[in-house]
Amino acid sequence: xxxxxxxxxxxxxxxxxxxxxxxxxxxxxxxxxxxxxxxxxxxxxxxxxxxxxxxxxxxxxxxxxxxxxxxxxxxxxxxxxxxxxxxxxxxxxxxxxxxxxxxxxxxxxxxxxxxxxxxxxxxxxxxxxxxxxxxxxxxxxxxxxxxxxxxxxxxxxxxxxxxxxxxxxxxxxxxxxxxxxxxxxxxxxxxxxxxxxxxxxxxxxxxxxxxxxxxxxxxxxxxxxxxxxxxxxxxxxxxxxxxxxxxxxxxxxxxxxxxxx
Length: 261
Prior knowledge:
Layout: H1 17-35, E1 40-51, H2 55-74, H3 78-85, E2 97-108, E3 113-120, H4 131-144, E4 148-153, E5 173-178, E6 187-191, E7 199-202, E8 211-214, H5 215-225, H6 228-231, H7 246-258
Parallel strand pairs: 3-4
Antiparallel strand pairs: 1-2, 2-3, 4-5, 5-6, 7-8
Helix pairs in contact: 1-5
């Protein structure tokens, strides 16, 4: 059964998001490879970044060692001595933690070069600092290096990456298309929760026609195959509340869906 919403389903921005993100990227990849000219191939790539732990992390990891040392000094029976030999004399901290984010890229298989990057944002990409800051820097590198970029933001929470000047109208979701040959101009699709997901042009190389990506087909495939209808509770408000009057519109939509025909 399809989603009750005509476009992006706001209920997916919840505990189910990670599953949706991974499978939506897979659905986009399949659609791209069915349409791309022979020399171009869409594949998935994993971006990994590392962060230093906070001072609090260091303190919490150092705590147990001090406790063991104190206990060893006050209790010298045989059992304690055996336990102490199993405790390393020095405990340190791996100074960086890893975060991972999967995205799509279109490559020219003949020249072995990246042509276009397609990003579907995750909550980690929209934090004020840390992972969000890392993503925004990577985004600038895409644009500055002359790559085409298609960025899809289907999350209403978090800090949105800059959408140009002047900024587009406020909307629930956005798709950005940066065509390398049109820099510094950006194409923006503001999308309301009431709107259908529009077809989006994916730029490749100059002289090569854009590929049209049907976002609705990809979304429907993921929704159906993931059995989201059985997992999402439409009887309560979404995890990230909608603004009025959209919230009232959504309530009416869901009531009509539950009325037997």
